[in-house]
Amino acid sequence: MLKPESEWQKKLTPEQYHVLREKGTEPPFTGRYDTFFDKGSYKCAACGNVLFTSETKYDSGCGWPAFFAANEKSIATKDDVSFGMHRIEVMCRKCGSHLGHVFDDGPKAKGGKSYCINSVALRFEKL
């Protein structure tokens, strides 16, 4: 969903725009979905693409919503070497929005991945 940035600025709140389009990060432990565990699906706040389900969400203690698995058809990843670190950025495959990062420190029994995602990048849909 290629849109000019001016359209994204109109569609998204300033906080959403900063995170989703400028690759910002919300402060830890402040997002609405950090300690939220209702049943449903988590969609991209920009385009509605289904990214994660509640069955894969867990309490990682990292300060952001964490998932041990993603809808692989809905996300893309790439190396991120900003701030003198090497991380793997997670983006929405449909609209290219920045969602967060994935790490190899998740539950070992579930594959070891930990998708730490900004709450503001998500929209929850209850089952």
Explain what the structure shows:
The protein has one domain: Peptide methionine sulfoxide reductase (Metal Binding Protein, Guanine Nucleotide Exchange Factor, Chain A, Beta Complex), CATH 2.170.150.20. About 15% of the residues lie in helices and about 30% in strands. The strands form 2 sheets. A 6-stranded antiparallel sheet has the order 3-4-8-7-6-5. A 3-stranded antiparallel sheet has the order 2-1-9, with no helix packed on it. A hairpin with a 5-residue loop joins strand 1 and strand 2.
Low-confidence stretches: none
Total discrete domains: 1
What's the CATH topology name?
Metal Binding Protein, Guanine Nucleotide Exchange Factor, Chain A
Helix content: 10-25%
Binned strand content: 25-35%
What does the average pLDDT come to?
95
Alpha-beta content class = alpha+beta
CATH class category: Mainly Beta
CATH architecture: Beta Complex
Within CATH, the superfamily carries the name Peptide methionine sulfoxide reductase
| Rg calc | 14 Å
